[in-house]
């Protein structure tokens, strides 16, 4: 049995979505690996998540959505000394609706095929085409072209830490030239995976739902007030919840 760390970055209004993800992951997970959640947020989730879930809170703050999405690499690096075998990152607005295990995602380095890879991205991938960018992939590349999620990736802990250190260095270098890749952290992941293909999960084999806001609007607004939703979450600390049409539903 492996020890698997699940990383969530859930600052500002994404706190509510991150709590939903953890509660639903815990409820539907039926695998043999031991799961520990690492929750990066501006609010401690202990009043919102049942006590039998193994979760470690890390305080983090983001003034805007771009800071939040770009923080995942540096946050994962902070887990280098943790007693875990694998680490997997999921966006906070991910959900799950059926029993699952994680056997198919275990690999040295794992990526997920973007749901648009074989449809609207079929003929042209949205890679960073700026030749001065660390995320640059030329249009005439001779490598197989596949587009991966930024919403999910992971792998063996030491391998993933090394990957995140490299991508974080790329972020720092691009800041020096005032360049932000078109899809932020996702562009860096795609650059690395383009030249170093990971163990990948096809869209049809990915058991999670990504970018599931469930009716909560303007989540990228750092000042969005979700106190009413937090209050309902707190009341239902020990229950499975879902979010439907922007409202918390206890199940």
3D architecture notes:
The structure is a single chain. By secondary structure, this protein is α/β, with parallel strands linked by helices. The chain has one domain (3-250): Alpha-Beta Complex (Spore Coat Polysaccharide Biosynthesis Protein SpsA, Chain A). The protein is 27% helix and 20% strand. The chain contains 6 helices and 9 strands, in the order βαββααβββααβαββ. Strands 3-2-1-4-6-5-7 form a 7-stranded mixed β-sheet. A hairpin with a 2-residue loop joins strand 8 and strand 9. The longest helix is centred in the middle third of the chain and has 20 residues, at 157-176. It is globular, with a radius of gyration of 18 Å. It starts with a strand and ends with a strand. The mean pLDDT is 97.
Task: Show the helix and strand layout.
Layout: E1 3-9, H1 14-28, E2 34-41, E3 55-59, H2 65-70, H3 72-77, E4 86-90, E5 109-113, E6 148-156, H4 157-176, H5 185-195, E7 199-201, H6 227-235, E8 241-244, E9 247-250
Parallel strand pairs: 1-2, 1-4, 2-3, 5-7
Antiparallel strand pairs: 4-6, 5-6, 8-9
Largest sheet: 7 strands, mixed
Helix content: 25-40%
Order of helices and strands: EHEEHHEEEHHEHEE
Number of distinct beta strands = 9
Structural class by SSE content: alpha/beta
Calculate the terminal CA-CA distance, rounded to whole Å: 30 Å
């Amino acid at each position: 049995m492996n020890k698997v760390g699940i990383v969530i970055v859930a600052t500002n209004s994404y706190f509510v979505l991150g709590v939903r993800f953890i509660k639903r992951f815990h409820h539907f997970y039926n695998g043999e690996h031991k799961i520990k959640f690492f929750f990066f947020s501006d609010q401690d989730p202990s009043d919102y998540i049942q006590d039998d879930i193994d979760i470690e809170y890390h305080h983090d703050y983001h003034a805007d959505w771009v800071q939040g999405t770009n923080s995942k690499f540096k946050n994962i690096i902070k887990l280098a000394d943790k007693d875990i075998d694998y680490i997997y990152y999921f966006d906070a607005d991910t959900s799950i609706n059926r029993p699952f295990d994680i056997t198919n995602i275990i690999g040295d380095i794992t990526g997920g095929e973007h749901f648009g890879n074989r449809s609207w991205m079929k003929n042209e991938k949205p890679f960073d085409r700026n030749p001065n960018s660390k995320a640059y992939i030329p249009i005439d590349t001779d490598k197989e072209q596949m587009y991966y999620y930024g919403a999910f990736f992971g792998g063996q802990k030491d391998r993933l830490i090394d990957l995140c250190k490299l991508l974080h260095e790329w972020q720092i270098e691009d800041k020096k030239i005032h360049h932000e890749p078109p899809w932020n952290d996702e562009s860096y992941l795609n650059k690395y995976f383009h030249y170093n293909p990971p163990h990948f999960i096809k869209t049809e084999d990915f058991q999670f739902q990504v970018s599931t806001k469930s009716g909560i609007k303007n989540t990228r607004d750092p000042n969005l007030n979700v106190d009413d939703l937090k209050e309902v979450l707190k009341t239902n600390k020990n229950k499975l919840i879902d979010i439907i049409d922007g409202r918390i539903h206890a199940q």
